Amino acid sequence: MSETNPAATAPMAADAAPHRYTAAMAAEIEARWQDFWDAEGTYDAPNPKGDLAGDPELAARPKKFIMDMFPYPSGAGLHVGHPLGYIATDVFARFQRMTGHNVLHTLGFDAFGLPAEQYAVQTGTHPRVSTEANMKNMQGQLRRLGLGHDKRRSFATIDPEYYKWTQWIFLQIFNSWYDDEAKKARPIADLVAQFESGERAVPGGRAWGELTEGERADVLGEYRLAYASDAPVNWCPGLGTVLANEEVTADGRSERGNFPVFKSKLRQWNMRITAYADRLLEDLDQLDWPEAIKLQQRNWIGRSEGARVDFPIDGEHVTVFTTRPDTLFGATYMVLAPEHPLVEKFTPAAWPEGTHDAWTGGHVTPTEAVAAYRAQAASKSDVERQAEAKDKTGVFIGAYATNPVNGERVPVFIADYVLMGYGTGAIMAVPAHDTRDFEFARAFELPIRCVVEPTDGRGTDTSTWDEAFASYDAKIVNSSGADVSLDGLPVVEAKARITEWLERTGSGRGTVNFRLRDWLFSRQRYWGEPFPIVYDEDGIAHALPESMLPLELPEVEDYSPRTFDPDDADTRPETPLSRNEDWVNVTLDLGDGPKKYRRETNTMPNWAGSCWYELRYLDPHNSEQLVDPEIEQYWMGPRVGQPHGGVDLYVGGAEHAVLHLLYARFWSKVLFDLGHVSSAEPFHKLFNQGMIQAYVYRDARGIAVPAAEVEERDGAYYYQGEKVSRLLGKMGKSLKNAVTPDEICAEYGADTLRLYEMAMGPLDVSRPWDTRAVVGQFRLLQRLWRNIVDEATGDVTVVDAEPDEGTLRALHKAVDGVRQDLEAMRFNTAIAKVTELNNHLTKVGGPVPRTVAERLVLMVAPLAPHVAEELWRKLGHTDSVVHQDFPVADPAYVVDETVTCVVQIKGKVKARLEVAPSISEEDLEKTALADEKVVAALGGAGIRKVIVRAPKLVNIVPA
Q1: 303-514 is classed in which CATH architecture?
Q2: Which residue, among 738, 692, 777, 757, has the nearest Cα to 78 in the 3D structure?
Q3: pLDDT digits over 407-464, tens only?
Q4: What would be the CATH architecture of the domain defined by 896-958?
Q5: Each residue of 645-676: b (16+ CB within 10 Å) or e?
Q6: Sequence-ordered alpha helix ranges (H) in 175-212
Q7: Across the chain, how many H-helices and E-strands are there?
Q8: 1-40+748-895 in CATH: which number?
Q9: Least packed by Cβ within 10 Å: which of 4, 73, 75, 902?
Q10: pLDDT tens digits for 364-378?
Q11: Torsion of CA 261, 262, 263, 269, to 10 degrees
């Protein structure tokens, strides 16, 4: 909204106070100290090799590794909401340096991804050109904020020197398998050795030496942690790429761009993250993360215990996973996901005799019915298919399965409420005790058999039921067969008995299932890391040797996929890389002579580079290994309270709970298992900052109008004379309410912006931006300056005199409180305590004692580093304030000299006493009873009881 800059209309004119702290002075001070810090390497964090070895005192310091979530270099640059977390980690890092820590704090750029590529499609500009320009702009904006980053360690994921190691990690995962007995990843060569020796049986029963190269590759592909497979994927024509489940919104559209997403079967690379599901769950307990984030990961992984049951069909079987094997006697039909690979195999050419008309969908043959229904299901998102709609759809595939527990034939359907992404893609339907199965059974006139006795009085006759009965606190009924009976058992005991029966008869087994699916790792785009994989003439995948890394992106003439028609589900991706035939078709010597190969033309997803970037910060220029083991152990290795190691503090948004954070944890565990790192977790402590919000103003059409041009009159808001609505929401360019940090720095200085963002409220809570309130922190800095510097002469006004008792107490209380607040990241209350002390000095008046001024400047240094550095030098110091010790409070002055004790008679306050905080209950009672006001109030009455809560309360009960 339009307003006047308060700093420009201050009551004292600049010419009357040439040394007053103004926006112009702030700009000069800030630029000068930023240049100094860069030139001196003030924020360079020494590594255990070299630097620390030559400095025993520094080597003895505890370390602190502080990280922000990777920023993406947007063309729009930063608005004031973006730096909130960066300023917070900078304040915390500065405080940690001042409390004796060796601090590593730096920032790079997550620079691959769709935005730059979509811009390239629209303009023809190479993604690297626009991305590097965006990075340069953001680097300038961030530098202006005075962030204390070790710039030697910065990098971008698009640097070939960086993605060489991303490709290298991919190859480690590709050349690994998960050993379920050892509960860890092992080199694929170990698995091959087991097959060769006969220690492990080859699937299919043949000897390893009898298999062709292609057959061996297929066998190993079933074990590799990175593998290619033909599977249903989320195909987004509007983006020209497939998407991971986590990148699809609840309404079945792409998270980026909001394009429709369809199910399609394509050959894609996957990461076998499901192998780590148990460890990903268990290790959450050892992490210092918000419980809400842990809960999201637990729910996404979705661990459930149950049984796998084999239902025979035509000499083969379909396996289902169920969490309620105790209800097996109540299974009256089966449902397969439309995408289930066995659907076509079990679908006959004609309908079996007596097929119910309602089961066929009105189609002439089962093949026709299945094909039509599959096409219908493919047009829906998983969320739409899972919706609890009353109208259930599906078709009979023309086949029957056998219920293993009682031998009954049950019809097999396909229906869209069953997904391939959960369990086995097949369910045994127990309509009496599952809401969706109940609705489906009613729609298709299928049997509904009660096997869990209702506790609500409805009885077991399901023909009278209006809904399913689902309960774990009930007894099993109607569940007896020739060699097993569950009747009368409670659910838990029945589950155990039927599971034992399934395993004894070979009809199934107890198992644990997870909602988590393997990570889809292919993208049909240009701007991503190329896969270090080539295919021979037989289509067998081969890993490039490390000597051929990095495999760099080639130049292409067209950055766009073959199609951008968002509604054409039948299209197939054609990647930009596939058009560069000279790059795709190559002759290479991979150790057995020159041969012709074809490169993989998909690229890695944008998440790849951020899965391991914390390791590159440790050792950013190492060209020989991923990270030096000694350096990794120093910064991230396990230690007391951090059994899995990891970054000491990681700050970022909560939106990455099941994307980046889960993926990074998976990569860390693989690298740990293979012995490349000592830390099994990437981030020990996670902190989610809130969001800076802003008012969005919309006209009568609902279109956002420029917030800066809106005027407020009599409680209403107007844009160009027309009334507009106001609603608090996100800040952004599209909403026309963005305020850039450059604007605030120009009007007030970076230190003021830093203070305002930290003072707005608790860091983990969202808060509204108000430009008019920024001036409050600017005035705090002006008062601080004025308490130390003469505005007319520029001379320092402090005196070498002892402070009075009141000032000593105010100082040490502030030191104690600010120290605790900064340690706990309560920056808003720390600023309040600094303000209180500064106001005390202003109120007392006269020159400020040097000891007080210096400690005040040191307390301000983490929050407003430029003005603190300037004042520190003016106070006569030659060393940077950055590495000074944070002041320590004297406990004698932190405790109040006296406290106020309230004396009550019959619950009413009759006196207030100033007493020592350490006064005993006996002495406090004597003092209260001797007080003149208390004696007068009692009027000679006797006393029945005295309740004393030293030092603050005495309650007298008269007789």
Answers
A1: Alpha-Beta Complex (3.90)
A2: 738
A3: 999 999 999 999 886 778 999 999 999 999 999 999 999 999 999 999 999 999 999 9
A4: Roll (3.10)
A5: bbbbbbbbebebbbbbbbbbbbbbbbbbbbeb
A6: 188-197
A7: 29, 31
A8: 1.10.730.10
A9: 4
A10: 999 999 999 998 888
A11: -50
